[in-house]
Amino acid sequence: MPIVKYPRAAEPLWHEWDRKAQKYGLRHTVYGINGDQYTGEWLDNLKHGKGTQLWKHSGAIYNGDWKCGKRDGYGSYSTPDPMTKEYQKVYAGWWRKDKRCGYGTMFYASGERYEGEWSSGLRSGWGRMCYRDGSIYEGQWVADRPDGQGVLCLPNNNRYEGGWKDGKKHGPGRFFYLDKGQLLEGIWVTDVPKCGIVIDLSRDEAPAPTRYPIPKIELADPDGVLAEAQAMFDDSQN
């Protein structure tokens, strides 16, 4: 029985060109139509691996890990100073799906600095914030605000230790007035102390103590009064 051979259909030339145009592995600088530049690794025509991106409009630059076209892994993001044109680091740390996620350090234009955990681009978890006025907060964060347990140290060395909610002192806490040698222990609601006990603390060592010491508490049951206030606060949170 005779064998019939059919000629193979010729592959369109554009198929070969398309394969060559697909970006895969390490490539030289690729320029976008808007002037952006990327130098680094690719996978399936997407930025993937190590690479550096330069945005023409803002002049910002990112150098680090990529995954499926997005910043993912460890990398640093910098922007040019408007006056000197020198690059200033804005963020160095971990990313996930183009957003800050994990542990990283943020440098703000005002001179403030945050070092700690992030989630979906927001400060969330445990972190330390150094403010412009010299104050330092270290503790828990939720959605970019202090929330949970934390310590705020003020420039005059006074400090607050206790609960926070939506960026304000909230719940049981202690405020150390080290400049006066006093301690306020009580309950705060949206930054305002609602009830508590004030006592002298290392009064003789304080730089500016009050003229007279705090008199002895004459309440029959001061601990019971504070416990009752605590119970009222707990009920209001439920």
Would you mind describing this structure in some detail?
The chain has 238 residues and is mainly β. The protein folds into 2 domains: 19-107, Histone H3 K4-specific methyltransferase SET7/9 N-terminal domain (Single Sheet); 143-233, Histone H3 K4-specific methyltransferase SET7/9 N-terminal domain. It is built from 2 helices and 15 strands. Strands 1-2-3-4-5-6-7-8-9-10-11-12-13-14-15 form a 15-stranded antiparallel β-sheet, covered by helices on one side. Strand 11 and strand 12 form a beta hairpin. It is elongated, with a radius of gyration of 30 Å. The mean pLDDT is 87.
SSE layout and pairing:
Elements: H1 13-21, E1 25-31, E2 37-43, E3 46-54, E4 61-67, E5 70-80, E6 87-96, E7 99-107, E8 113-119, E9 122-130, E10 136-142, E11 145-153, E12 159-165, E13 168-177, E14 182-189, E15 192-200, H2 222-237
Antiparallel strand pairs: 1-2, 2-3, 3-4, 4-5, 5-6, 6-7, 7-8, 8-9, 9-10, 10-11, 11-12, 12-13, 13-14, 14-15
